[in-house]
Structures are given as C-alpha cells and as structure tokens.
C-alpha cells in the first residue's frame, strides 16, 4: 500500500487535522513484477543459444575447423541453437501479435477434419523418431467459425508436447468431436504427466516443470501460453487432466 499524507491547518495556521490517501498498488506492483520477470526470462532465453553459437564459431575459426569431425559436430550445434533461436523469436512474435489491443481473428469456416489431416505430416517425423503411435479419432464433417491458422497452431502445440513428454514407443491420441455448441478437441498421451499443484502454472510464459527436459526437446516454454491465448480469443476454454507417470489429456472447447 502506498500512503500519501498532508496536514490541514485552520485560518490561524493551527493544525486542525490531516488527510491520508491509501492507494492499493498490489495489482500495479504485480504487473510490474511480471513485466520485469518476462524481460529477464526473454533475455536469458536469448542469451543461452547466442553464447553457444559465438563460442563454437570462435573455436572453429581459431583452427578447430581443420578437423573434419569437429567441424561437423560444432556446425550441428550451431545449426541446432540457431534453430532454437528462430523458434523462440517466432513464439515471441506470435504472443505479442495476440496481445495487441487491435488484434483481430481472421475468422472463416474451418473444416476440422481437413485441418487435422494437414497436421499429420508436420508432426509425423518427430513421432516416428520416438516410435510413438499416433491415433486420430476425428469426427467427419465438423466445422466451426474460427481463425484457421491459429487453431492449427493450438493442435500442433498440444500434439508436439504430447510427443515430447512421452516415453519412446508411447501413444498419443487426438480426438475431435462435435458437442452441440462446442467442438471438443482432446490430446492424450501416456507420458510423464503433471503434478496437480503445478497444472495452473504450465500456461504461464516460460514456466516449465523440468527446465532441462524442456530444453532438450527444443521447447521454448511459450507453447501453452500461446495455446491458452488463442483458445480464449475464440471464447473457448481449456482444461487438463493429468497424473504424474500416468499421462495427460488436454481438452480444448471451441464455440462453433
Ligand atoms: P515447453 O516448450 O517447455 O514444452 P509449453 O508452454 O508447451 O513449453 O509447456 C510448459 C510446460 O508444461 C512444459 O515445460 C512441461 O513441463 C509441461 N507440459 C506441457 N505439456 C505436457 C504434457 N503433455 N505432459 C507433461 N508435461 C507437459
């Protein structure tokens, strides 16, 4: 609380009383802390790959590139880290786009079966690498009014997470069903699951249950923040059922 006070004098300049103004600045302080936190997080996330890129490039330039094996392995690191940076910057731009005051959805009639069909080739490679069995259970002919590209991103992000947080040879199931007013999209995995206590936090920007694991899978820590944002600007909602070691199911409800 911020307090501002001032004395009140009478006409003979004698102290008569005082006024005290009490401002509740909890909310403002919270916003300010969140902003500082975000800037610190972004800076850290950008710095880590850049440090690695400059370090490996410098070592190569100082002579290490004469060894073919070293050259190949260092270039692979430089490529991977640049790729990570690109993903991070894309996610940051998406979030800032979604948060603009004048942000508008490009709504059209979205055919959900066509949309999910387009997603398979995008994530198949990653699923195959891990030997994950993908099951699609998509009701035919469902449509909704929404922003096609944004909805596609929601499904891609949820499926990518389901694959990333699953063991080798795991199982990931996507279902899309018509529920009168809503289209219900769910993504299930039999992966590591999420502790009940942290479920509300996973939608925060840069929150990760296990930083090292998320980093290894190439995650930016922004995927679910983007998902939640997109679902909410469509007036939909999202919920999670999960149990540690027993997998997770993300439910998205989008109004038709
Ligand atoms: P990341 O890039 O780290 O995956 P997200 O915003 O997509 O970022 O997810 C935030 C965190 O939520 C992840 O780091 C992970 O700890 C947890 N998480 C997300 N999806 C799953 C899932 N299907 N199973 C287990 N944990 C998950």
Ligands in the structure? adenosine-5'-diphosphate
Unreliable spans = none
Nearest-angstrom radius of gyration?
A: 25 Å
Distance between the termini: 45 Å
Q: Looking across the biggest beta sheet, what order are the strands in? A: 4-6-7-9-8
**Major sheet: size, sense and barrel closure?**
5 strands, mixed
What is the typical, i.e. mean, pLDDT?
94
| Percent in helix | 40-55%
Oligomer: single chain
> Number of helical segments?
6
String of helices and strands = EEHHEHEEHEEHHEE
Q: Got a strand count?
A: 9
Tell the overall outline: extended
| Class per helix and strand makeup | alpha+beta
Strand content: 25-35%
Protein name: histidine kinase
Domain Histidine kinase: 41-256
Catalytic activity: ATP + protein L-histidine = ADP + protein N-phospho-L-histidine
Main location: membrane
What does this protein look like?
The protein contains 6 helices and 9 strands. The protein is 47% helix and 26% strand. The chain is an alpha+beta fold and 256 residues long. The strands form 3 sheets. The chain has a 5-stranded mixed sheet, covered by helices on one side. A two-stranded antiparallel sheet has the order 1-2. A two-stranded antiparallel ribbon has the order 3-5. The structure holds adenosine-5'-diphosphate.
